[in-house]
Design a protein that fits this description.
8 strands, binds zinc ion, mainly beta, six-stranded antiparallel beta sheet
Length: 121
């Protein structure tokens, strides 16, 4: 998160769903994890004017991991459609990678940060 005077860019996360007593898709423990929706927005005087970079994430409590949820899966959840939770079996979710310089979320295939151009570690 950073500010340039009265306007800036922020990332916002909302919890879409909390899953209790489920098998963790990362470590396999029987615990809890949350589905998050994250997006970036540009604001002026605290007024969001532009929104982009929407994505869905899985945050686990047991092993404190954040993973990328397949986009279609997240969208279906938000629309209230029945989700096939068996898709989230252990080890299928990509780890979340952020730029070491500006914290922008990077797609697994990105070699360079789209915002600041830094090469990924
Ligand atoms: Zn876990
Ligand atoms: Zn960057």
């Amino acid at each position: 998160m950073f500010f340039i005077g009265i306007f800036g860019i922020q990332a916002k996360q909302e919890v879409v769903e909390s899953r209790q007593g489920e098998i963790c898709p990362v470590c396999g423990s029987l615990d809890r994890y949350e589905i998050l929706k994250e997006y970036q927005y540009f604001h002026i005087f605290f007024l969001p004017v532009w929104r982009w970079g929407e994505r869905y994430l899985v945050r686990t409590r047991c092993c404190q991991q954040v993973r990328i949820l397949p986009h279609e899966f997240g969208k279906a959840l938000v629309r209230g459609e029945a989700a096939d939770w068996s898709q989230l079996s252990q080890g299928v979710l990509d780890p979340l990678v952020r730029c070491a310089h500006c914290s922008t979320l990077l797609e697994p295939e990105y070699r360079y940060c789209p915002r600041c151009g830094s090469e990924r570690d």
